[in-house]
Amino acid sequence: QQSFTGPVSRKPDPRRADPLWIADDALYTGHGMAPAENPGVTHRTPSSAGTVVIVDDEASVRELFEGALSDRGHRVGTAGSVAEGLEVCEGVNPDVVIVDIFMPERSGLELIRAVRQRSRPPRVIAVTGGGSNEDFDVLLTAKDAGADVALRKPLPVRVLIDAVEGLLERS
To answer: From start to end of the chain, where are the E strands?
Structure first.
């Protein structure tokens, strides 16, 4: 099975006090969770399964995330574009949406803004493999657009699971 790996580091952003905010490189530290690389840490079992929609133009990423979340008991829908993602969200009313920021045709930021306008908006996890330099950080832009959590790819699947389940507990 395919797995993502990445650096385990945290770059705190002083503008963000939310413990679910991840400003850089895949480390989820909020709400009693620790990274999978930390030996001896037992990850909790989800207290309730949620409905999750994954929107990413890379099929391998969708399949990896879908399998990991389904194995934890979550109901998962997938979409390969922002337009498909909006359709899926209309049909299933998700608890959590995971969206890639950089996709062909339309930006994941558009999806974030759209789902945040719903009467019962889902929690949002933004993921990206790029878009950061001295002048611009797409993860900060995603947070400003309404993302609850922002993660940089590649990331360990365990980090994504912990972020989803942390958001479900806060809902």
So the answer is: 51-55, 75-79, 96-100, 123-128, 149-152
Contact at 8 Å (CB) between 170 and 81?
Answer: no
- pLDDT at position 37 is 40
Fill in the DSSP letter of residue 157. Answer: H
Instruction: Determine the Cα–Cα distance for residues 13 and 147; give it in Å rounded to an integer.
Output: 15
pTM: 0.73
pLDDT digits (tens, 9 = 90+) for 149-167: 999 888 999 999 999 999 9
Distance CA 144, CA 140 (A): 6
Which of 74, 82, 96, 70 shows the shortest CA–CA distance to 149? Answer: 96
Closest CA to 52 of 156, 149, 153: 149
For residue 77, the cross-strand partners are 53
Parallel, antiparallel, or unpaired: how do β-strands 75-79 and 96-100 relate? unpaired
